[in-house]
Design brief:
The chain is mainly alpha-helical and 68 residues long. The protein contains four helices and no strands. Helix 2 crosses helix 4.
Amino acid sequence: MADAVKGPASYFPSIEKKYGRPIAEWKDLIRSSPLTKHMELVAWLKTEHGLGHGHANALVAHTLAGAK
């Protein structure tokens, strides 16, 4: 039996369902942003793309950690 997904990636199914974009697309947006600091990116996702804080934080943390 596979282990349950933990950490930031555990938010991914609900992010895709709620915002209608695949995680790869969100990660590409984060990587292409001129912003580099974690909280700047979180704030940007919240204001420009309407994400909630937890979802934005999970995407940024996972992306900046270099996880695929």
